[in-house]
Amino acid sequence: MSRDDGRRPLIGITAYQDDAAWSVWNQRAALVPQTYVDAVARAGGTPVLLPPQPGGVDHLLDALDGLVLAGGPDIDPARYAAPADPRTGPPHPARDDWESRLLAAALARNLPLLGVCRGMQLLNVELGGTLRQHLPDGSHQIVPARFVRHRIGLVDGSSLAAVLGPAADVSCYHHQAVDRLGTGLRATAWAADGTVEALELAGHRFAVGVQWHPETDPDDLRLFEALLTAGRTTPTHRETAP
Predict the structure, then answer these.
(1) φ, ψ dihedrals at 164, nearest 5°
(2) Are strands 185-191 and 16-22 parallel, antiparallel or unpaired?
(3) What are the two backbone dihedrals, phi and then psi, of residue 94, each rounded to the nearest 5 degrees?
């Protein structure tokens, strides 16, 4: 029995734990850019924020129809057995651990997932891949807090090409990139300089990672709609991924 019952799919979005200010308060907060929430909602889903926490992975994923691994800080290089480059950001062990547990459980359930920027890199790392810790300055991250718009090419016959076509203009903001691919992953999009821009996991209902930020483009919801379409056919009793 599937969940394709006409209701809005519940889509989990991983979130930060960070200091934030509002009104007279300056406190530790669980937060995520509003663009992720808006993208899921406008695509027809109900967004659910998933900040780092000590437990509850199975309980949460049993209630969800899909998972978005949001962008964020650099992954600790120790997770792929590499020394830290001086330009790699400080580790965030609580978030790394939380999202790795969510990802592993989602893959085991064949739960549809979309990894965005850091989320794609985490997918690669957790499946045994590695990262390039710093791209040439001024390539994919030029000015702080400003996205770089560039064109990517997609592999014919891939799930992404079926959604986006043979090429797309996307918004990037990253200084790291996929190096060695993780087990079962296929690179399905590249930038002109050879940077891997997308990954797909063979044999999974929908496990896609993109290096760009689709949530920042309010006029193009196709990736989120594809995630929700897969989520609507998620079984009520979770199946085990092949």
Answers:
(1) -110, -15
(2) unpaired
(3) -65, -45
CB neighbours (10 Å) of residue 24?
A: 5
Which of these is catalytic: 126, 197, 200, 215? 215
Q: Is 213 noted as a catalytic residue in this protein? A: yes
Domain 10-232 has CATH 3.30.70.100: no
Select which of 92, 99, 117, 175 is catalytic.
117
Domain limits, the chain: 10-232
- Give pLDDT tens digits for 84-125: 999 999 999 999 999 999 999 999 999 999 999 999 999 999
Is 117 noted as a catalytic residue in this protein? yes
Running DSSP on this structure, what letter comes out for residue 1? -
215 catalytic residue (yes or no): yes
Taking the C-alpha atoms of residue 183 and residue 128, their distance in angstroms, rounded to an integer, is 6
Global pTM exceeds 0.70: yes
For residue 207, which of 74, 67, 72, 80 has the smallest C-alpha distance?
Answer: 67
CB 143, CB 95: distance < 8 Å: no
Task: Return the closest-CA partner of residue 172 out of 115, 122, 211, 222.
Answer: 211
Q: How far apart are CA 222 and CA 8, in angstroms?
A: 16
Q: Which tokens go with 159?
A: 């799930």
Which residue(s) pair with 94 in the sheet? none
